[in-house]
Structure formats: C-alpha cells, structure tokens
Amino acid sequence: IPGYGDSPPVEMVVTAHGRRTFLDHVLQELGMQRPVLVSPSMSGRFALPFLLAQGDRLAGFVPIAPVGTKDYTAEQYRGVQTPTLILYGDHDTRLAPQALQNLQHLPEHRVAVLPGAGHACYLDKPEEFHRALLGFLRQLK
C-alpha cells in the first residue's frame, strides 16, 4: 500500500478520493473487469471509498478487519449492493468487532469467523480462510 511500511509516500493517496482514484487506476491498468476485491487491514482506506462510490464495478468484496469502517455511515453502507463476505479471526478483538459493527449494514453481506485466528486470519488459519473465500466465490454470479 503506497505510503505504508517502507513504501514511498504518494501525494495522490492523502485523501479518500485520491485513494479511490488510485485503486481505480490500478484495476484499469490490470484490465480487471468486475473483480472480487479482498481488503485486509490497512487496505480498507483504499477499498472502502472505492466500494462506496463504485461497488457496482465489483463482483464481490471481502473485507478482513479493514481499517476506516467508522468513517462512513450506516446509510452509506446500506446503499451498496455488492455481495460481501465479512471475514475475520475470533482472536482479533480490537479491529474486527468495530469493522463488523459498521460493515453489517451492507445489505448483501454474510459473515465468516475463523476460530483461533487473529488479525491476520489468512496467515493464522490459511486452510479455513481459503475454504471460506472459495465458498463465497463459488456463490457469485
């Protein structure tokens, strides 16, 4: 993610609009048509503005305890029709409950909780993570 960790800061990603535009450019450059957007942790700052503005361009959305969910209202979430799998580890007691509280307003959502997994549930329980993800992908149109 530009500007996080050791990556250089990018002026464009300072605002939610800029991050949405950045993600839009990435998807266009990759030639992706109706992708499923998987959004763990810090990537929520990019994925959520994109979902709320252009969710109809996504075949599905898989938030994994993303940051930034409290920046939007229940009403904004209710306007999104993108099929969503809210996925998290039950040992993530800080970010996951907050994300669930906000994301549960997405009308087309379901929830998968990985027992014994923490914030990076895909690393803690990779088989269970992939089983949940693949099950969700199989149900998409």
From TrEMBL:
Alphabetic keyword roster: Cytoplasm
Gene Ontology annotations for the cellular component aspect, listed alphabetically: cytoplasm
Protein name listed in UniProt: ABHEA protein
Compartments, as annotated in UniProt: Cytoplasm
UniProt keyword annotation of Phosphoprotein present: no
Source taxonomy: Eukaryota, Metazoa, Chordata, Craniata, Vertebrata
Cross-referenced InterPro entries: AB_hydrolase_fold
